[in-house]
Structure formats: C-alpha cells, structure tokens
Amino acid sequence: MPNLSHEPMPGQCACDDSSNCALCPPMNSLRTQLSLFGALLIALCIALGVVMATLYRSSAGAQVDTARNATQQSCNAIAARYAQSVSAAPLSPPTFAPQLDLLQVLLQLVLREAPHVEGGIWQSQQGLLAYAYPSYEGSGIKRDVPPAEQPLIVDIAQRATRTQQIQVDVVRGSREALVVAACPLRGRNQDLAAWTMTRTHVGALAAQRSLYIGFAMLLALVLVSAAWLRWILRRGLRHVARLETQLLHAQDDEVPELDRTGLRELDRIVDSFNHHRERYALASKQLLQAVQQRNRDQRLAALGRMTGSIAHEIRNPIAAMRLKAENALAAEPERYGQALRTIVNQIDRLDGLVQSLLALVQPLSLSPSCVALNAWLEERLASASQAAALRNVALTLRNEGTAATLRLDPIHMARAMDNLLDNALRHAPSGSPVRLSAQRTPANTLLLSVEDDGPGVPTSLQPRLFEPFATGRTDGTGLGLALAREVALAHGGELRYVARGAGACFELEIPWQDC
After folding, report:
1. In the CATH hierarchy, which top-level class contains the domain 250-362?
2. CATH code matching the domain that covers 60-202, chosen among 3.30.450.20, 3.30.70.270, 3.30.460.80, 3.40.225.10
C-alpha cells in the first residue's frame, strides 16, 4: 500500500498540531485569534472599571468628603498644638501680645502641612485674632480673612465654643463648595475656637470630560473588536465557501483534492479529507479491478454455457440430417427428395442460428431516422398478425403519443419489437390478447411494453433471462430476448422483465429524441 501521509507544500505549515509547532504563524489559528479577541474584551472590562473608578474619585461627593476630612484634621491639629503650648507655658498670667504671636506661629506650622486650607483663631470678646494661609498660591502672602466668609466663620466658631465640639459646615455653589470647620481650644480661656476653611471644585466639567473620554475609548475598543471579529468570521466563511464550491463542482463521483486555506483548524480538516480521498481512490481502483475480474469470470461462465448451448443446437440438426441421409441411402431413390428437403430445412435452421449469433456478438451500428411512432407500431402489429391468427391470439395497441415523431433506428428497433411480440405470442393462451403499448414518460423517454396472459417467466430463469440460449422452450434458442436487449442498450436504454401476478410483461425504454 502506498504511503498516504500528507507532505507539506512549500510555504505551508509542516505540523498538524498547534501545541508544539514553532513553524506555523500563530495568527493562522482560529483558536489564537478568538483567544486574543477574548483578551481584548477582558481589557475592555478592566478599562471600563478604571474609568468608573476615576469618575467616582473625581465626582463632587468624593471631593467634598476629601475637603471635609482635610478641614477637620487641620482644625483638630491646631487644637492639639494649642493644648500642648498652654500646658508648657508658666502659670503667671500671660500678656495678650505674646499669645497672638504664639497663635500665629501655631497656625503657620499646622496649616503648612495642609494644602489649600486656611485658618485662624476666634475669641468671643476680640473676634478674629489670628489668621494664616501658608499654601496660598497667589502673588503674595495672604493675611486678611475673606470678608464674604466672615459671618459664616463667626457663626460656626460660636457654635463650637458653645457646644465644646467640632462643627463643620458645607456651602455648595454651582462650581465650587466651601467647607468650614471650627473646634474649641481647651485651655485657660474657654471662649477660644480654631477654624479652618477650604474650597473645592465640584468637578462637573472635569467629570463630564472624563466621562466623554471614557465613553469614546470604550466605543473605539468596541468598534475595533467588532471589526476584528467580523474580519475573522468573514475570512473563515470565505474559506469554507471555497471548499464548498470545490466539492459542488466535482465531476460525477470524483472526489476533488481540496486546497489548504491557511487556517490551521480548517487545514487539519482539509488534510484529513485529502487523506481519505487518497484512500478512497485506492479502494475504488481495487474495487474496479475486482469488478473487472468478476466480469471476466462471468463472461467466461456465460461463454461456457453458450458454448454448450451452441454445441447442442448444432448437434441436433446435424444428427437429423445424418439420420435422413443414412435412411435415404438405404431406401429407394424415390425417397431422396424428401430426405434432401429435410436436410435443407435443417441447414436453414443452422443458418438462422449462425446469423443470430453474428448479430449478437457484433456491435450494432445504428442508423437513426425520424419515425412516425403510430405508423411504425401498426407495422409491427401487421408483421405479427399472421402468427397471431394461427395461435388465435388478439393483438391490441395502446399509443399515448399517436402523432409523435422521434428519432430511432427503425430496422433494429423493429427486429427487437418483433422478437418481443413473437415471444409473447408463443406463450399467450389461445383466445387471450397480447397488448402492445407506447407512452412518453415524464423522464422524457419512450416506454414500449409487450404484455401477455401466459404462465410468465419461471423464477429460476429470471436471473439469466437475457443471456443467450436462456430459454424455457425446447424449440427455442433464447437469442431473441438477448438481441432485443442489445438493441435497447445500443439506443442508450434498457430492456427489463416486470413480474406480474399472471402473465409476462417486457418493457423496452430508450431516451426520447425529437426530430
């Protein structure tokens, strides 16, 4: 058996398994492409999460919470530093001036660590005592408390000294929010309070801009992913359509060799198909050889049977002629004439046998011409009418295409139909009909049928009914049906026997050829 393993073509991948192949481009694999597409979708989800987290962090609520925490921590830090300073000072009553310096330094130290937070000290008797904004980004050092916010600062400081608890207020605007915190300063004086204040942008425009950017990125990724998937699918479907076209355009029972596609998964299928194609071709070749051998054996067997039949058919006339000749030689000369006539009849019988054998073994040479079907069928009945009258059998004709004209060989077809009619007349009981019918079938063929009400063909004879010398009559040669079948085959048709409950029916069918 030949080696049917697939040999890679130049420039093609030399491996069948994608797991251990460094020669095949990875992008030729549908699995790899879909894996990359899945990774892109995962990256898309991660990007969406990052964008949402960024939007949350830049939202107004998050910014206000951050500002609130910054002001509270700064105010608590001022209160803690103040408490430490008071506990470390001497017990003698301090003067007011050094206390202001202390408060100013304290504010500078604490607020320097709190970006964008300003603050001061408030006393119920003196009002706003100290102020600091060390992280101010203006042109110079800011030393004045914003006048617009002073009423809010005084109010929240009063509440802090009254409740001795930290107080926080948030004033929201269209573009920014003001966060103010105040906490009591616990020490020798119970009417002091520290306050801190910061401003934060609501961030609507920034958040909206980030949202638009995020959506644009997501849209771009989705469009790229969709385009990539569409390209993968179209490429795969295009290769599948090409393979389908190759299979559909195969001639008859030919199994075409499929071309590789460049996609590893499809190429594995193509290689398997081509491998089985080679196995199929080898099996078909072996089957053809077996059929040819079987046909040779059948021909030899048929030739053996035919040789025996020919020998029998020839021996009988020879024996009859020998007997007549011997009897004539032994008798008076007056009986020579009768003996010679018997010998001549046997010679005619042998000549007919030889002519039939020659017609059977020589290829038919057809001479088709336009034939009026109805008139031709009438001629066939007329030629068989004398034999039908002798056997008291009625001939009937049923033609569904009376006016039809078609092309066929009228001489050979007449010989075939005459043999079928003669066969039916020999088996039809006396007083019964023999029916000849013709019709044009939906498959565009001419179907000629000859039916009789005789005993039919024995089951044992049916398998070799159309072989030469296969006959159930002692006075027949069995060549008529064989000749009729050869005529049908020469016209591209077929002759078959149709078994019925009673009688026999032979159907001769040939392609219809219009003139």
Report:
1. mainly alpha
2. 3.30.450.20
DSSP state string for 48-92? HHHHHHHHHHTSHHHHHHHHHHHHHHHHHHHHHHHHHHHHHS-SS
Q: Among candidates 44, 15, 366, 386, which has minimal Cα distance to 215?
A: 44
Whole-model pTM?
Answer: 0.38
Buried b (16+ CB within 10 A) or exposed e, 99-120: beebbbebbeebbeebeebbbb
pLDDT in tens, 105-115: 888 889 888 88
pLDDT for 356 equals 61
Closest CA to 450 of 432, 466, 434, 430: 434
User: 161 with 190: CB under 8 angstroms?
Assistant: yes
Q: Where exactly are the structural domains of the chain?
A: 22-56+207-248, 60-202, 250-362, 364-511
- In this structure, what DSSP letter does residue 364 have? P
pLDDT digits (tens, 9 = 90+) for 280-324: 888 888 888 888 788 677 666 766 666 666 666 676 677 777 777
Residue 417 is encoded by which pair of tokens?
A: 């139909």
**Mean per-residue pLDDT, 134-144:** 78
User: Are 473 and 497 a contacting pair, CB within 8 Å?
Assistant: no
The arithmetic mean of pLDDT across residues 218-244, rounded, is 81
Per-residue pLDDT, averaged over 327-338, amounts to 74
Establish whether domains 60-202 and 364-511 are of one fold: no
Distance (Å, whole) CA 73 – CA 121 = 16
- Measured CA to CA, the distance from residue 244 to residue 190 in angstroms comes to 95
Give Cα 430 distance to the centre of its chain: 66
CA dist., res. 118 & res. 197, Å (int):
5
* CATH code of the region 364-511: 3.30.565.10
Tell me which residue of 260, 284, 262, 283 sits closest to 272, measured CA to CA.
260
Cα gap 435→421, rounded to integer Å: 9
φ, ψ (nearest 5 deg) of residue 497:
-100, 130
